[in-house]
Amino acid sequence: MKKSIMVRMLLFLVFVTGISLNAFAQKDKIEGLWYNAEKTAKINIYKGTDGKYWGKIVWLKEPEKNGKPKVDENNPKSEHKNDPLLNLAILRHFEKDGDNLYNDGEIYDPKNGKTYSCKITHKGETLSVRGFVGVSLIGRTTVWERAK
To answer: Domains along the chain?
Structure first.
């Protein structure tokens, strides 16, 4: 009986230690809440289970249209036109490349329903988000600010 109690206590201590270490795991500087350039949305950037960085819309300045939650009405896929904009993943598959660069991702623009190749450069309290087609020379850059 005493041996089983000791084993349980040991397992409990291992479990608590694992949770504590996980709670103190360092987040990457790109992770967290960011305002888009127009400050009409907040995007939460996080590291996904695939080890890549993702971003989803978690706040909208105007979350409703005609009294109903805004949806992805411009999505080219008809089965997604009624998906809510809140919690929509607009940044996908970014890989960290050095200290401040995140490459090989894509950004989805719900305003026009198009997806672009994208790279993100971290610059302190701002992100330089460049969406492009083909090569990054042909594209557009917006600046996002960290939300407080």
So the answer is: 28-146 (2.40.128.520)
